[in-house]
Amino acid sequence: MELAGMLPLLLLVAMAAIQLGVAGYAVQQAGTGARAAARIASRDDFSDDYAASGRAAMSQWTASRSKFSLGGAEDEVKVTTKVTIPSVVPGVDDFGDASRSATMPRD
User: Fold this and answer.
1) Distances (CA, A) of 57 to 19, 41, 47, 61, 65
2) TadE-like domain location, by residue (predicted)?
3) Are 68 and 33 in contact (CB under 8 A)?
4) How many CA atoms lie within 13 A of 25 on its CB side?
5) Exposed (0-12), middle (13-18) or buried (19+): which is 36, by Cβ within 10 Å?
6) What's the gap between Cα 101 and its chain centre?
7) Left, alpha or beta for 22 (phi > 0: left; psi -120 to 50: alpha)?
8) Which of 20, 71, 88, 98 is 20 to 30 Å from the Cα of 12, by its Cα?
C-alpha cells in the first residue's frame, strides 16, 4: 500500500528529472549550433550557408526546432541560436527556449 501511495510522487520526480535533462541537452545543442554557424558565417565565401551548417552540427530533433540570427560588428560575426525546449510532460507544451550565442572574427 505504501508503494501505491508513493508511486505518483516517484513518477512526478522522475518526469521532472527527465525534463531537466532534456532542457540541458537543448542548451548544449544550441551552443553547438551557434559555434558551427558562426564559424561558417565568419568566412566571406560561405556566409550565406551559416544556418544550414549550424543545423547540420546539431541533432535532428533539436535542429528542427532551431532558429538562427546573425549580427555583429565590422570585424566580427555573432550568431545567436534559439532552440525550443521539447516537453516530456503530457499536457505541458511550453518550457521556453534555450538560447546561445557565439562570436567569431571575420576573415
Assistant:
1) 23, 14, 16, 12, 13
2) 2-39
3) yes
4) 16
5) buried
6) 11
7) alpha
8) 98
Report the pLDDT value the prediction gives residue 46, as an integer from 0 to 100. 67
- Determine how β-strand 66-71 pairs with β-strand 76-84: antiparallel
Let me know: does 71 contact 78? Beta carbons within 8 Å.
yes
Q: Grid coordinates representing 61? A: 530533433
Given a cut of 80, whether residue 45 has pLDDT beyond it is no
Q: What's the one-letter identity of residue 65?
A: R
pLDDT digits (tens, 9 = 90+) for 55-106: 999 999 899 999 999 987 888 999 999 999 988 877 777 788 999 999 999 8
Other beta carbons less than 10 A from residue 70's beta carbon: 14
Provide the pairing of β-strand 76-84 with 97-105.
antiparallel
Q: Which residues contact 4 (CB under 8 A, 6 or more apart)?
A: none
